[in-house]
Write the structure tokens for this entry.
Amino acid sequence: MFNCNFKRSNTLNATFSCFVINIIMLQMYRSSTIPGHSPVPPTFKPPNTAHPPPNIPPGYGTDLYPAENLDPLNHPALQMEEISRNSKSNEFSYITKVPNYRNLRIKNRDDKYYCNICSEYPSPMVPRGKIIRHRHNSSKIKRMYSTTLKWAEYNCTSCKTTPHSHKTGVRYPVIVTSSILNNWQGKKSGYPGDEIHVDIIGIPGATIKMLHHAFLAEFENSYRPVDVLLVGGLNDVMKGRPLHKIMTDLNNFKRDVIALKRPSGTNGD
């Protein structure tokens, strides 16, 4: 900073000149660039914390969810919001129901164990028209019917990052299980949550055939590839199902999962 060293006998004009020189030097200092530092902006505008940008989705930037091709000059946050809304809409579009599913739902509306997912889906594993009663835990169905928040995000109960986008990746990682891993996180006491989003279908007491049926009810027409971890079979053993039939059920499940194989990134989502 410029230093004026005037004596006491100097006039007011000299003092004023010193003040003006200091102001000019301060302006020059603010507009100059110090090596390793950015120029000091003339005014500072604090960020708008009332409307923060959307959370980065779990697994973003990995093979599960490669980075989106966003236009940095065209409001990236709004682009991510549109991607999330499209993903939610697409998930509703590929659900298959039997023709009379509305009548079935009305007829069984007072039955708290009536499973509309499994009862209203036609497959070779379950006779047409059979009413299926069980507790069906589905993270995908919860996501589809969840409240849409700011930036079209939703509150995820399993992920470390929440809320997050309805799009969870270019693939669906899914755990299909009976009571063995159903609700394995509990209340997440001491566990922060998953680093990537993994969907779960959990049905206590379900056999492999029923898990197979439930999986197809949710993902048969999926527009994304699906990676499946099946954790079940204990209920088949407890019910005395012969080993060769259990192996047949497992192979049938594997066959249908492989039949869903499709390349990633072909859905435009």
User: Anything to note?
Assistant: Residues 12-31 form the longest helix (20 residues). Residues 76-259 form one domain.
